[in-house]
Design goal:
By secondary structure, the chain is α+β, with helices and mostly antiparallel strands. It is 27% helix and 27% strand. The strands form three sheets. Strands 5, 6, 7, 13, 14, 15, 16, 17 and 18 form a nine-stranded mixed beta sheet that branches. Strands 1, 2, 9, 10, 11, 12, 19 and 20 form an eight-stranded mixed beta sheet that branches. A three-stranded antiparallel beta sheet has the order 3-8-4.
């Protein structure tokens, strides 16, 4: 590299799932990478911590179904690359008056994704301890991914290919230097790169300021709860997305579920507004009461007493589509909205495509598409 050239091909700001996946993808393509994380790697202050996130194929929209298939292949590649088991495939269920299991089934059928549409009585016989009202969609290619383990695996393999990991390095200012260079000022000095991928989750709007015309991004603090199973020796239930009076999801809890594999349950997007720096980290007692009442009604196979609870952040667009686009040397990577984790390795690949000046991989995720508006719904 000649004198005055940027020190790195790409600087990744944020080492959560999306930033770590971007570093992995970039080093697999031979790029030099610096990863800048304001906290320690694997911290619990954002959206990427914990031992279980849902992976699944069940979406109403063909674009997301296609992307889930690509992401599943990449999760398997990461497992092989890192020699680490990250996925736990238990199948997935969609049900509820607001969930449209028949519509999801039609989308899966068109994409050739195996699935079954079951009456509620058959589903209740198949999965004792779960309660249903109406048709139930089951598809086998679903389960959980170890979020914290995935971050560690992405970063370890990126580091093994030469990426520099700089923890406790908060980016204070981003300065584009024309189309092909960017300067990042941190508390530990200045870094230059040809491209910067801003994958900072709830901090992305503060970092980009007036540099990029972002859509409205709403940061909320969500609550998750773990409940013990009445029969810990029974096979694990599938992951479940249920949209009725509440919009909920539940899944095997992984390490956070304790030695008896407690169940993780939460509402989708029911948390109050906050910011990355002002969140209080306290669980809302009203949310605990709602979820406990939900467990009594719909999950009689659980003891309705939560034993572990936590908070995390959603950073959401109005239509819950992701934000993934480039402006000059800056790549905006905010694929959150509460359903991005399952796509992490694919989002990393897409971000690197933008780093390499390829067209935006999904037109719906561009800044222009967000500026034109869209239909607000729960795509997950």
């Amino acid at each position: 590299m000649s004198a005055g050239a940027p020190a790195f091909d790409v600087a990744v700001v944020g080492a959560g799932l999306m930033g770590a996946a971007t570093a992995w993808a970039a080093t697999r393509r031979g790029l030099s990478v610096a990863v800048l994380e304001r906290f320690d790697a694997g911290h619990d202050k954002g959206s990427s911590h914990g031992s279980a996130r849902i992976v699944r194929r069940g979406y109403r929209e063909p674009m997301y179904v296609r992307m889930t298939g690509q992401a599943m292949e990449l999760w398997r590649e990461l497992e092989a690359d890192s020699s680490r088991e990250l996925l736990r495939i238990v199948g997935g269920i969609d049900h509820g008056r607001g969930r449209d299991p028949e519509g999801i089934a039609a989308t899966l059928a068109a994409a050739g994704v195996p699935h079954e549409l079951l009456p509620s009585e058959e589903a209740a016989r198949r999965w004792p301890g779960l309660r249903f009202d109406g048709p139930v969609l089951f598809h086998p290619e679903a389960g959980t991914v170890d979020a914290g383990g995935a971050v560690a695996a992405f970063l370890a393999r990126a580091g093994g290919r030469g990426a520099e990991m700089r923890e406790r390095t908060a980016v204070r200012r981003i300065t584009p230097l024309g189309e092909n260079a960017v300067q990042l000022d941190t508390g530990q000095g200045t870094i230059t790169a040809r491209r910067a991928v801003i994958a900072a989750g709830a901090w992305v709007a503060d970092l980009l300021g007036d540099l990029v015309p972002l859509p409205e991004l709403t940061v909320t603090q969500q609550q998750v709860f773990h409940f013990p199973r009445r029969d810990p020796t029974a096979p694990p239930w599938p992951v479940v997305v249920h949209k009725d009076a509440l919009s909920t999801y539940s899944l095997p809890g992984g390490r956070d579920g304790g030695p008896l594999d407690g169940r993780k349950i939460a509402e989708h997007d029911a948390g109050g507004p906050t910011s990355a720096d002002t969140r209080d980290g306290r669980v809302d007692p009203a949310a605990r009461e709602r979820i406990t009442a939900y467990v009594r009604q719909w999950l009689p196979g659980l003891v309705p007493e939560p034993f572990n609870e936590a908070t995390c952040l959603y950073t959401s667009t109005p239509n819950e589509d992701f934000v993934l686009d480039r402006r000059g040397p800056l790549v905006v990577c905010s694929p959150c909205s509460g359903h991005g984790a399952k796509f992490a390795p694919l989002i990393g690949e897409m971000a690197v495509d933008l780093v390499l000046d390829r067209p935006a991989p999904e037109p719906r995720f561009t800044l222009a598409a967000h500026a034109s508006g869209g239909t607000a719904e729960w795509p997950a």
